[in-house]
Write a structure and sequence with these properties.
It contains four helices and 80 strands. The protein is mostly beta strands and about 900 residues long.
Length: about 900
């Protein structure tokens, strides 16, 4: 039987060690030797380690696993156990079934892993493969040092599992192999069935991949494709080498999932003959048979569908993903059952929208639906008409007003001058630019606008900030460019120069520009850029050095800045990288900021407009507390001062006065605590004393309140804890004993066996649950059941021996476990008491089920068995001797009918043991 869950193949490299020494814990040294796999130790090394190390362990049985806890019917597992005795010595090391193991050797308090080096030879297979907890995947042959006598998982295709579908069994991207006590690869098993696997073979101390070649034939499809672990850059017909019995995914184009469709199909290669066969091709999202491709012999054939794209009056370029750019009508060959995107021009995506939309083809190659990208909602950009995709078109009016230079709209590769009408596709995002392609970290020569489903222009968006742009304004029929008059004086420069998209000029000139867009000023081979605003341009001048001679191009007359307020108006001494917003008027791009007094460093200034600057500042630990003046200076030299706008404060240490809730229980996860106190600062951290409590993060709500999320480990020591808050400046304060950790009450989840019969004596039960403590007691509700003994196997399991009185009341019972501290937990109805008559009635019903299943050859035989069962049931309690004789006669019948072939062996095996048990219980 399989136990545990599938392994996690990608593990964190952080080793989390729980080193809090508890009462009854002993230092145990683990020597991992040469093995490079990370190992886990139950409850202590949950994230794994490579050793050597020393950990404190309790006197109990502990489990070591290597990235997996898999066991199989062949008698192998990915883990072993060892026992720490009450003196702190390791008393024995056993396998998963408590038998002898060669995995490790114990000497006193030292556990040493035995090592075995094996070679992994993938042959011609060029993809990736990895072992769990190995810290990455590899290609090609290599050697690994493992621990013998264990079962390992080898991932060939990232460790995925694909479900059963269409009559085919499930398949996985990995297989199991065993390294025996001699360090040899003993056998290779299918990860899902535990049967011998065709994926690889063990050859002494070498694990060899079995390889098969398959041909991937995309037909007329001209885009790119890839097979998982091999990359995504293949085109056309290819032969690739794969490992049989492993499932793979084939990615068409970019390999994305969108609105219920995927560009990925999955397939499995078997080991028939010298060349593998593609056994099935299914949709990776639904598990259903895919219309995208088919497996024929050793070939994976892409299905092809030709569709016609009609853009109508739209004259710009567009691209079908994984195909080629085009303009105008045309046919493209695609693969059905896959999502595709159509990109208009350069395909921009912003919060305001996207300049691409998606469509899907059904299995017949018809347009199934047209969707917005990336939301997946229906799109008005195009309409599907059978095998044709027709762009919907919307004419918009572009009014440049006084702007006379060239500009560009959308993806059309032509210059526009003056007022014009352009044909665009609705429900998409477009770019408006001023004739230049200039871009800087703070500004760009273009902005974006979106057309809604009716073809109307929505908000105009700044290409850098994502906020509203001043470049244009939507109108009822399209959009109008906003205008600003700019005067340029080149000073002593007398040669030709160019402003934005205008032709060359000489001397002073006035031009109309588009505000909020980056505009170049070019003279000879030198160039500067500026951003016009609605009242003029910023900066007022540009210094260009041309052939070694500096020239100052004056763009407009500067203004006098007037700072009036700062937000926040106070900062603590020692604060670093604090953001301030300076409000006022007359600010220009490139303005500088200075503060009066000592200890304030201005790290950066960002121009937000004529009325606002943002500044990043740091305050020295020794800065003098008190009010400070702020001075703003524009690039033209004009400056203005705001008196006492910023106050420097001396920081004080935080205090912690209360925590709510003030109690947590072992195993509480992601609990939010409200912490109150004083002088909390942004970026403050929280720590809880003692071990076993993880602080996930703190949120500062005010200077007197914060919230912190914590988790309590399973075995955390109960008792009071201190909570400490530390501000970024290093000052801290603690609240003593404000938080108390409570012990977790035991839980009862299962009892095995879960049914007993009246009169049973000395019956052993296994009780599963959690938080069982040494000395725990067990009671069973309802009376008539005597608990003879209780043994605590571990904190999650008890071994209990009970006797059932012959007159115990039949029915469901509640099992209660009580720890020595008085905390208890119960499992309602987990144990059922049955009368002998109920058992016989159940056997009679089982006979009827066997007859219906064909396990009993005819109704007469079944009737004979049922009559014996019914008669014995009536006699029990009235004439037990007669009932015993009837049941012994029934045993003889079962033997005779089995030998005669009237009933099958499973019938006898199901009925005879229970009949014998009833005979033994009769007084």
């Amino acid at each position: 039987m399989r136990s545990g869950s599938l392994p996690v193949f990608v593990c964190t490299l952080v080793v989390a060690l729980l080193l809090a020494t508890e009462a009854g814990a002993y230092p145990i040294t683990i020597n991992a030797g040469a093995t490079t796999l990370r190992f886990r130790l139950d409850g202590v090394l949950r994230d794994g380690s490579t050793g050597p190390l020393t950990v404190d362990l309790s006197a109990a049985t502990h489990t070591v696993s290597f990235g997996n806890s898999v066991s199989n019917a062949a008698g192998a597992a990915g883990f072993f156990r060892f026992v720490v005795g009450t003196t702190g010595q390791i008393t024995n090391v056993v396998n998963w079934n408590n038998g002898p193991t060669a995995a490790a050797t114990a000497s006193g308090s030292v556990l040493t892993f035995n090592n075995a080096t094996i070679a992994i030879d993938p042959g011609l297979y060029a993809g990736r493969h990895s072992l769990p907890n190995e810290g990455g995947s590899s290609k090609g042959p290599r050697t690994v040092t493992l621990v013998p006598d264990l079962l390992y998982v080898l991932s060939v295709n990232y460790g995925w599992t694909i479900p059963a579908a269409g009559g085919y069994p499930a398949a996985a991207g990995y297989f199991h192999f065993v390294v025996n006590a001699a360090g040899q690869v003993a056998h290779v098993l299918n990860a899902l069935s535990d049967t011998p696997s065709a994926a690889a073979v063990g050859d002494g101390a070498t694990l060899r991949f079995n390889n098969v070649d398959i041909i991937v034939d995309p037909g007329l499809y001209a885009g790119f494709w890839g097979v998982s672990t091999f990359g995504f850059s293949q085109y056309g017909l290819q032969t690739i080498t794969l490992v049989p019995e492993i499932f793979y995914s084939a990615n068409i184009g970019y390999g994305f999932d969108f609105a219920g469709a995927t560009t990925t199909v999955s397939f499995v290669v078997d080991s028939v003959g010298a060349v593998g066969q593609v056994t099935r091709v299914i949709n990776s999202l639904t598990g259903a048979t895919s219309a995208s491709a088919v497996g024929v012999g050793n070939r994976l054939l892409f299905h092809n569908a030709t569709i016609q794209i009609e853009p109508g009056l739209y004259a710009g370029p567009y691209t079908v993903r994984a195909n080629v750019p085009r303009t105008g009508p045309g046919a493209v060959v695609l693969i059905p059952d896959m999502p595709y995107t159509v990109d208009l021009g350069a395909a921009y995506d912003l919060a305001a929208g996207s300049s691409r939309f998606a469509f899907t083809l059904d299995s017949a190659g018809r347009i199934a639906r047209v969707l917005r990208y990336p939301s997946g909602n229906p799109s008005a950009a195009a309409t599907g008409d059978g095998g044709a995709l027709n762009f919907n078109n919307a004419p918009i009016d572009v009014d440049p007003q006084l702007y006379t230079a060239r500009y560009y709209v959308g993806a059309a590769a032509v210059s526009l001058y003056g007022r014009t009408t352009v044909v665009l596709v609705p429900d998409l995002l477009y770019r408006l630019r001023n004739g230049s392609s200039e871009t800087s970290p703070t500004a760009a020569s273009h902005c974006f606008f979106a057309l809604d489903a009716t073809g109307r222009v929505g908000q105009i968006v700044n290409a850098v900030t994502g906020g509203p742009s001043l470049a244009a304004t939507p109108t009822s029929t399209g959009l109008a460019l906003n205008n600003v008059q700019v005067f340029v004086d080149p000073g002593g420069f007398t040669a030709a120069y160019t402003l934005g998209a205008y032709s060359s000029d000489r001397g002073p000139v006035s031009h109309v520009l588009i505000p909020d867009l980056l505009t170049p000023l070019t003279a000879s081979s030198q160039k500067g850029t500026f951003v016009p605003n609605l009242t003029g341009v910023t900066p007022p001048s540009l210094l260009l050095t041309i052939s070694g001679v500096p020239y100052l191009f004056s763009l407009r007359v500067g203004q006098t800045p007037v700072p009036t307020a700062i937000d926040p108006s106070a900062l603590l001494r020692g604060a670093t990288n604090q953001a301030l917003v300076i409000s006022g008027s007359g600010f220009e791009s490139g303005a500088t900021v200075a503060f009066g007094g000592d200890g304030i460093t201005v790290n950066s200034i960002t121009y937000q407009g004529a009325t606002a600057l943002s500044a990043n500042v740091s305050i020295d630990q020794t800065a003098t507390p008190g009010p400070r003046d702020v001075t703003v200076t524009n690039p033209t030299g004009q400056s203005g001062t705001g008196s006492g706008l910023l106050t420097i404060l001396a920081p004080q240490p935080p205090t912690v006065t209360a925590v709510a809730p003030n109690t947590l229980t072992q195993e509480d996860a992601n609990q939010v605590l409200a912490v109150t106190g004083t002088h909390f600062e942004a970026g403050a951290t929280v720590a809880v004393s003692g071990g076993g409590i993880t602080v996930h993060g703190a949120t500062i709500e005010s200077d007197t309140r914060l919230s912190v999320t914590v988790s309590v480990a399973y075995a955390t020591t109960p008792g009071p804890r201190n909570l400490t808050v530390t501000n970024p400046n290093g000052l801290s304060g603690a609240g003593s004993g404000l938080l108390t950790i409570l012990a977790h009450a035991p839980t009862v989840t299962a009892v095995a066996p879960n049914t007993l019969i009246q009169g049973m004596s000395g019956q052993r039960l296994t009780i599963d649950g959690s938080h069982f403590a040494a000395g725990a007691g067990v009671t069973v509700g309802g009376g008539g059941i005597t608990v003879l003994s209780v043994a605590v196997v571990n904190d999650r399991q008890l071994a209990v021996t009970v006797s059932v009185a012959p007159a115990a009341t039949a029915g469901a019972r509640t099992v209660v476990v009580t720890n020595p501290d008085g905390l208890s937990g119960s499992g309602a109805g987990l144990l059922t008491i049955r009368t002998p008559q109920q058992v016989l009635n159940a056997l009679s019903a089982q006979v009827a089920a066997f007859l219906a299943a064909g396990e009993i050859r005819n109704a007469g035989i079944a009737n004979s068995l049922q009559v014996s069962l019914d008669n014995a049931a009536r006699k029990i309690g009235q004439n037990n001797e007669a009932a015993r004789g009837m049941l012994e006669s029934l045993l003889n019948k079962l033997d005779a009918y089995t030998r005669g072939g009237q009933i099958t062996q499973p019938v006898r095996e199901a009925l005879a043991p229970q009949v014998r048990l009833l005979i033994s219980l009769l007084p």
